[in-house]
Structures are given as C-alpha cells and as structure tokens.
Amino acid sequence: MNRKLFTSESVTEGHPDKLCDQISDAVLDAILAQDPMGRVACECATTTGVVWIMGEISTNCYVDIPKIARQVISDIGYDASTGFDGATCAIATAIDEQSADIALGVDHSLEQKAGDNSGNGAGDQGLMFGYACDETPELMPLPISMAHALARQLTNVRKDGTLAYLKPDGKTQVTIEYDENDNVARVDAIVVSSQHCASVSLEQIRADIIEQVIKPIVPAHLLDGDTKIYVNPTGRFVVGGPQGDSGLTGRKIIVDTYGGYARHGGGAFSGKDPTKVDRSAAYAARHAAKNIVAAGLASKCEVQLAYAIGVAKPVSVRVDTFGTAKVDEAKISEVVQALFDLRPTAIIKRFDLRRPIYRQLAALGHVGRTDIDLPWEKLDVVDELKCAISNA
Questions:
Q1: Which helix (H) or strand (E) holds 358?
Q2: N or C: at which end does the chain have fewer Cβ atoms within 10 angstroms?
Q3: How far is it, in rounded angstroms, from Cα 157 to Cα 339?
Q4: pLDDT in tens, 315-366
Q5: Please, are residues 35 and 9 in contact by the beta-carbon 8 Å criterion?
Q6: What angle do CA 226, 230, 233 make, to 5 degrees?
Q7: pTM exceeding the 0.70 threshold for the entire prediction
Q8: In angstroms, how far is the first alpha carbon of the chain from the final one?
Q9: For residue 310, with 0-12 CB atoms within 10 Å meaning exposed, 13-18 middle and 19 or more buried, which class applies?
C-alpha cells in the first residue's frame, strides 16, 4: 500500500525565537492600545543575558519598551533559576521612525491617488498563503495541530505545578502516517524535548512526559506498538532558553502557520502592524480557505495572495484545491474574488485588526486556534459561498 509520512513541529512559549516573537508583539499591542493608527515594525534578538529590540515605529504615544520586554520574559517563566532572568538581563533598544518613502504608499494607495477610494496601499510587496483542510475540527493539518497541542500541554503542566521541574524552553514534533487515500492512519513518531532542572533523572522525565503530556493529547487509537516516542533524546536539556541558544523574531514562520503542510510566502508576522500584508493578508487568506472547506466546496484549499507596495488591490489571487474540489475550481476562484475584499483597509476593518490582540498569537500558531476567538477563524462566509457557487 502507498502510505506516506508527514512531520510538523511546534515550540513552547519559552523557545528563544518565540520569546522574541512575544516581545515584538507585546510592544505592538502596547502601542495599538494607545494609538490604533501606529505604524510598527519591531524586531527582537536575544542571547545569554541580553535582549536587543530594534525597528521602525511611528506613533503619537509613549511605551516603556524595556519594561514590556521584562514583563514578557517573566510571564514566560524565565527567572534566576533558568539561566536567563527577566529582572536582571540587559535590554538594549534601537528604534527609528517608519520610512517616509514607505508611508507615501501606505497612507494613500495608488488607486486612491487616481480617484478610487481604496484606502491604504499594501505596506510591502510580497506573497501570502492561507490553507485549510478537513483533517481536524479546526480545519488544520493534523501534524501541526497535534504538535501545538503537545507544546501547549508541556507549558500547562509546567505552570500548574504538575511537572514543576520543567523549565520554559521546549519543542515538540509529530509524524503522521497517511494511507493510500490520503487519510490519517496513525501516529508514526512523537518527539518531545523540554528544558528541566538538573536534579531530575531522565527516566522520570520520560515517564512523566509520556503520562502527563503525550497521553492526554494523542488519541490512543492513533498509537500502536510501532509508534516511536522520543523524550529528550539527547539525554539532558538543562541549559536552555537564551542561555542555550540565540533567538530572533520571525524565525518560526512554519510553526506559526501550517507546519510545512502548505506553502509559505516567506514573510513573518510578529511585531508588524496590520498595514503589513505579510500579516493581515495571510490571515485573510486563511479565512477564505477555511470557509471554502467548511462550505464543502473542497476538502483541501490553499489561497495565495500577492501585493505591490502602495497598491491596495492584490496583483494576483489564486485558489488551489489539489484536485479535491467538488465544483469547478475556476468558479471557486471567481467567487472568492467577488465575496472577499482583499484590500488592506478592508481586511483591517473586517477583522478589527487595529487593537491589541497580537501577543496571544505569538506562540502556538496564528491560525487554527481554538483557545482564543479570532475573526479570521470564523465560518461566517459559508452560506454566501454556497449561494454564490449555486448561482455561478
């Protein structure tokens, strides 16, 4: 039988790259809370004992960036016992204003200058993808959904004291086997690595993580005698976080989206205000793809959008159902362009993106979330899609 494997990974909130994403988005949130029209492009980097925060920010408010960073670090759980302390680490900032040349295209789109009331132009050129499939209730690929769930559980048992010896840094990975019909057959492999106190034995860590992290998350019917489970396979993970590895905003773009199951345009999300289509258009593409699958028009759907800086309307819109469409794929594409307004100003308005909602997205994925209420996850265009297709 033609069976195949697919693997996705996730990381915990304490991973150095995710720490940086959360600081960047916490700065964005703090500015949007006071100045919804603020322009933010905030990057962060970290290594042993230090955090650098840099970027281009134009706003009429003041936020205490070092204080915000320390709060994020402490909330995650980094203190004197972890080798990286939010209270004492060095914080360096280098902030400039947004380029006036970029602002020319964002403030007034090319269409607006020609008399078309299209609102803001795209904050940059680029391409974005959104994806959905019917493998899970949240219409996400199972490998990334399960990897995120394991990472979330790893943090939960650390913070609620169930496994108090765990520390913030951690990674998860899930390999799913699909059958000849591309349906989920079983879990082939699970990898969980977690930072921990030096005093705990590897045997205890492995037993506890299997019992408290893996078993509550992975359905028993997907596990069998051939499923491989690796817990801290190096044998020791005491030095972690920024002390063990450097971190950088935007370095986990596959974790943030579909775990490699769908294509990615290359643009990161965190630290960017919604005029940056890297972020807002990726959310819009997910919204369109998810509603298409939920409407029963296809079992898999990928939507690609592309923009030119300073131009409001996408330069291209592409719908790909990978041969799973129940109706003519060309009709689906036509209906998407008719029902979804994909200009940046329209996306921002539809999803109410000029508000402080971003730090909560900076770990465990920006799409497919069931723990928080996100407008681009709503199935609010399903009936319109069905009606439009039936009338096309």
A1: none
A2: N
A3: 43
A4: 999 999 999 999 999 999 999 999 999 999 999 999 999 999 999 999 999 9
A5: no
A6: 145
A7: yes
A8: 40
A9: buried
Pairing between β-strand 300-307 and β-strand 316-320 as defined by DSSP bridges: antiparallel
DSSP result, 175-209 = EEEE-TTS-EEEEEEEEEEEEE-TTS-HHHHHHHH
Q: Is the dihedral of CA 216, 357, 25, 301 positive or negative?
A: positive
Angstrom distance (rounded) from CA 345 to CA 107: 10
Phi, psi for residue 89 in degrees, rounded to 5:
-65, 155
DSSP, collapsed to helix, strand or coil, labels residue 149 as: helix
Contact 193, 15 (CB under 8 A): no
Q: Which residues in 111-134 are b (16+ Cβ under 10 Å) and which e?
A: bbeeeeebbbbbbbebbbbbbbbe
- Give me the residues paired with residue 128 across strands: 305
Crossing angle for the helix pair 65-76 and 16-34, nearest 10 degrees? 130
Residue pair 351/323 in contact by the 8 Å Cβ criterion:
no
Task: Give dist(CA 281, CA 266) in Å, integer.
Answer: 13
Secondary element (H or E) of residue 116:
none
Sheet strands (E) in 80-207: 90-96, 126-133, 166-178, 184-196
